[in-house]
Amino acid sequence: MNEYKCKSTALSLTLEWPVLAQCLSWRPGNPLPHPFSPFWFTVEPQDTLAIRGNSALLNCSAHSDTATPARIEWKKDGTFMSLVSDERRNILPDGSLFFTHVIHSKHNKPDEGTYQCVATIDTLGSISSRTARLSVAGIPRFTSQPSPASVHLGDSHVMACEVNTDLVPFTRWEKDRQQPELGARLIQLPNGALVISNASEADAGLYRCAVEPVGSSNFNLDRVSLLLPETGEERKLEFLAQPVSVTKLIGASVLLPCVVTGFPSPRIRWSLGDKPQELTFVQHDAYLCFFLLSMSQITLLFSLDPTAPPQFVKRPSNIYAHETMDIIFECEVSGSPAPTVKWVKNGDAVIPSDYFKIIEHNLQVLGLVKSDEGFYQCLAENDAGNIQSSAQLIILDYGVDGPAGPTPSAPRDVVASLVSTRFIKLTWRQPAEPHGDELTYSVFYSQEGTSRERVVNTSRPGEMQVTIQNLMPDTKYRFRVTAHNSNGQGESSATLKVATQAEVQVPGPAPNLQAVANTPTSVSLSWDKPLTGNGEILTYKLFYTDRGRARDEDVDVDGQSYTMTGLKKNTEYSFRVVANNKHGPGVSTDDIVVRTLSDVPSAPPQNLTLEVQNSKGIMLRWQPPPLSGQNGEITSYKIRYRKGSRRSESAVITAGTQLSKLIDGLEPGTEYSFRVSATTVNGTGPATDWTTAETFESDLDESRVPDQPSSLHVRPLVNSIVASWTPPENQDIVVRGYTISYGIGSPHAQTIKVDYKQRYFTIENLDPSSHYVITLKAFNNVGEGIPVYESAITRPQSDPIDPDVDLYELFHAPYTPVPDPSPMMPPVGVQASVVSHDAIKVTWADNLLPKNQKITDNRYYTVRWKTNIPANAKVKAANSTSLSHLVTGLKPNTQYEFSVMVTKGRRFSTWSMTAVGTTLETSPSSAPKDVTVVSKENKPRTIIVNWQPPSEANGKITGYIIYYSTDVNAVVHDWVIEPVVGNRLTHQIQELTVDTVYYFKIQARNSKGMGPMSEAVQFRTPKSKFKTRADVKFPSGFDLDLSLLSENHLLVIIIIIAVGVFTIIVVVVGAFLCTRRTTSHQKKKRAASKSSNGSHKYKGNAKDLKPPDLWIHHERLELKPMDKSPEPNPVMTETPILRTSQDITPADSGLESNPHLQQRRNSYRGQSYPKERPKKLLFRKINQSEMSPLQPARLCIITPSIRLEFFWHTGNRIFYTLTKEGV
């Protein structure tokens, strides 16, 4: 038996409470206090799913060291069950509750509910177990019948088992009456469905979902699955099984289905926010399951909420105590969500009162009485479960033996020297017979009408006064005082009755305070008149504050309602009301919290940046609007973008938690503008300004390693070296980072890799006065490129201190992140922003300036720039006293390199990292050079024009235009045009007139417009040695066969029959003459005749030209059989040439009313042609439907009664119609 040594010096002992309690009652020769009795549950009931009509069992068993076994009783839904005459439900010897058969129907569910077992030992008390839920499953019911399914090889398939949810745990699958082995390819989902991944021929068969309750019934669901071969045709992506938001215990397993079908087979990835995840979840958050197929992506957002059942951090402990004492049972629990705690004493709930108080999960019992003895339990519960822990309270009796010596008599003259509303101060005199010098005192007090007495002890010996705190106003109390000496407690004084004062009748709290948000900026409040108070309520003071402020604001209100306006949107406000009467302000109400309504965002997203990923994709990143401008929860972001300066826009919507988006499927080498706006449930807020970026013309190459970095600069310090560099000149190769190697005498001692965006790095922890070799290499996924070498000697340790540097850094340490006695640090963050075709703005930052980057001294900056063209690598420079400089007078479409240095007095920095910028394009400012014209051998009517590009192209040349005429002084629109596409520097012109002087000019063109024309170059075509039929060329395919004419064209047959042979000859000759009327030979003659009414000519061969819409130059047409359609000419599609209004005037319109125009069309200006037999022309009859897309092109009047019309078809076919008057 343990012995407790107790020094009885009044009550000021410093032992642990259980030991202290025993010391207070133990005397030599007396037995020790009654020990605590072990009493706990060995088995507690668990949640159970029972089957209707079957048996069920809820386990419960308790342990105790007492001779009397515990009596087990059961509660259902908080009420004790009466099981005396119940034949269906009974308690087993170990305390478990057994159901012989469970009853459950739609309208009668007597067994379903929450159960709890209570163990009782009469001499000790009672304890209650955790609660358990008994659920009853109904009869299996399949909600739908299956149908045969066909699955492509390699695809995924989901077979649902659509049975009532409470029976899902009892489902299992069979294939061909055999249970398949579940694994990586065959998975049964939590809802009972079976997933087959990467289907093979072995998976085909008869599948059955069987539900097997405890009974003998077996319900099944059959499904036939067939395998189909993959055809290779693309199939749309679709979800077969989608993940849903789920709540799981921490540490538990969770299966999140994400099954997708489609062809080609999609790739499924999981991510948490923007980060890929391997699904080990430990916190609440939103997850993404998304899959990719080619350039398409579909995303599904869901959440996984991990939960944790309650756990005890600190359990309540057994306590010894005496009557009148105050005790605290401590109980600390954790869990997610936060558990709720309640206390139970001997199986009954503890109801908070003046003597039983629950404070932060702890139970405080004030003024103990003997009936407080027993078992106290702390029960914690949340959605994940519930737990309980018990502790025993034993009330000790004072020693039964008499004191060892005389004890003090009763204290004298106990009076209340000070009485207030909440406290009373008692004083007294020493007992008449103290029997000792150092007396201590105990004051016992209780509220009148109760037997529960509390005690307060004096703090030091000899003290004869005490203040009793925390009393109730206007309440009567009883007090008595006892003295203690070394022998024990003495006699009690007579009872003193004292009433606390009534509080000044200021108003009490206003009841029923309510607050309702009306609009995003207003809240309506109302309250009732206080129940207590002396006199009329004069005013109410309404206090309010938003949750981010520490100080209240207030407003005076005369009535019992008020509408607060001018509040912040979607902000939590706290309100309380204080009533005022003639005595002053009363008791405040409790705070009531209300949030103003949300609204559309009033500010756009912040920090929108664009990062070109490749030739078809641009990555957008942004930050949410400022909190003051969000006005609610951001539910989504809307991205609008457009191509170039087009007005039509496309839109993409992202989740409210997503702050980046890759816009793909764009066109290469194209400028796009983007803006982003935030959306709440109320609508979409303002958008950011348009931000532009241009996709790459082609994707970067990663089939080879990067080139050598274009420069490497090092700056040695005492213990470090600062390295800065510029990227490789060939930026068409992917660079994923840089490798820095360094060492004393050799660069192979240490290696560091940095990001591809980084342009400088500080190598630290170096030795002073040492020679270091540094190499820099760019690398990508293929490997590392060629290194560039530099060497540097670190400065000696005893380097003299520059006072201008060190004193500044000593006293301005917060603004100098790189304190260094070396030369000044170069500017950082140099950027070149293109402004126009001849201007670029250069900006930078200075780390030696304060954080606000304000220049307060005489430092200035020097900006230097040069082109990347070796022949023009002249360096120019300019000074600036600010952190930016606009460089003007630059060449268009030219890449420039910029760097900056800072100078302060005699000190200056090295040049900064290089920034690169390319000026915008503009139209060519010079004409093509070295224009020459030569004739083609043996072809006097064909010449070849050669030239060189303009010196100042100002952009990529997209084409040239050749002008030629026989009159050098003719106006520009009378010159014949020959377009040339691309960067070709030679062109062939045919069908010129022999022995004729021609003049040639050339004009260059880029994406911004046309440049100036070159000087005219004169050339005379050679003379022809003879004139034969070869000199008169017919359009290829022009083949008029009269025999076929009689067979294929009904109209010609009628003409032959009606008019005869003579009319046919006239028609053929007329057709030939009309066709030849506008040959190139005649066109050259008309150009040479300086016709004042000639229109702007347009010429090109079949390879370079698409015929104009309405006017056709027939000398350039090639007549072919009607069942063939020539390919559309790509030249005119890419480089259309604008013409004057004369060029596009329809040939048919105004013909009769414009004799002058008719004269131009029918006059050959006296030119004669050899009478040659025309080539055959093949005719066929066309349908009426083919007439709709025809456009009139040319009308030839052969005779007053015969017309030959030409039509141009939108499919590049030529149609001729021959009409005789009246036919």
Quick recap of the structure?
Strands 2, 5, 6, 9, 10 and 11 form a six-stranded mixed sheet that branches. Strands 20, 22, 23, 24, 25 and 28 form a six-stranded mixed sheet that branches. A five-stranded mixed sheet has the order 26-34-33-29-30. It is mainly beta and 1223 residues long.
What's the arrangement of secondary structure elements?
Blueprint: H1 17-25, E1 39-43, E2 48-51, E3 56-58, E4 61-64, E5 71-76, E6 79-80, E7 89-91, E8 97-99, E9 113-121, E10 125-128, E11 132-137, E12 149-152, E13 157-159, E14 171-175, E15 186-188, E16 194-196, E17 205-211, E18 219-228, E19 235-241, E20 246-249, E21 259-263, E22 267-272, E23 275-276, E24 285-293, E25 296-314, E26 319-322, E27 327-329, E28 332-336, E29 340-345, E30 348-349, E31 356-359, E32 362-365, E33 374-382, E34 385-396, E35 412-419, E36 424-429, E37 440-447, E38 454-457, E39 465-468, E40 476-485, E41 488-492, E42 496-499, E43 514-519, E44 522-526, E45 539-546, E46 553-557, E47 561-564, E48 572-581, E49 584-585, E50 592-595, E51 606-612, E52 618-623, H2 627-630, E53 636-643, E54 650-655, E55 660-663, E56 671-680, E57 683-687, E58 691-694, E59 711-716, E60 721-726, E61 737-744, E62 750-755, E63 760-763, E64 771-779, E65 788-793, H3 803-811, E66 828-834, E67 840-845, E68 860-867, E69 876-880, E70 884-887, E71 895-904, E72 907-908, E73 915-918, E74 929-936, E75 939-948, E76 957-965, E77 976-981, ...
Parallel strand pairs: 2-11, 12-18, 20-25, 26-34
Antiparallel strand pairs: 1-4, 3-8, 5-6, 5-9, 7-8, 9-10, 9-11, 13-16, 14-17, 15-16, 17-18, 19-21, 22-23, 22-24, 24-25, 25-28, 27-32, 29-30, 29-33, 31-32, 33-34, 35-36, 36-39, 37-38, 37-40, 40-41, 40-42, 43-44, 44-47, 45-46, 45-48, 48-49, 48-50, 51-52, 52-55, 53-54, 53-56, 56-57, 56-58, 59-60, ...
